[in-house]
Amino acid sequence: MNPPMLLAEKLLDTLYELEARSSSLSWDKDELKDYLPGHIRYKMIASMLRQLNYNTTPGEFMFHVFKRGIPEDDELSGDVTDFLRLFGNFHRHHNIGDVGMTFLFLYTFRQRLHYALVDDLFVSGYGSVEPGMQIMTYMKERLLTEVSWIDQLLNMIVDPKKLSFDKDLLIKEYGYPTDDLEAIDLDWI
Fold this sequence. Notes:
Elements: H1 7-21, H2 29-32, H3 36-51, H4 58-66, H5 74-85, H6 90-93, H7 99-117, H8 130-146, H9 148-158, H10 167-174, H11 181-187
Helix pairs in contact: 1-3, 1-7, 1-9, 3-10, 7-9
């Protein structure tokens, strides 16, 4: 059995999805009302931020973390430093004491990778691309395995407490939307 998904992991995945699926990303809640999948993801992100005690809107979250909106925490900085030292010379080329800059750099890389890998829908159903799709699926899985350390580090920075994603709790206490996002996404393709 797989371990439960971390709240930070779900938050970051939802941020990646919002950015990848929005043609012109707007972090303005009112502007996203015209794009229902984006509006729902915005509400999901807002509720997860509330549970994590970030006093910020989804649009301000990235700047909040980058500007050291996470608590000044020597233990967290030490954890990030120790984690990055596992990867050799990385710490010689970057100021790993700057958690905000590390977060921004790795988040941007991970978001771009997500964007490149997110949608296979445009080729599904075409038998002639089956071998190519099998290769792409294999490569996608390999790439995601190779960057799993980035996901672990981003999760650590966003939520050092490592809270589990509990959808029922988010719905009950933080206003997490209950819409069928998968069906809504399909309607908007």
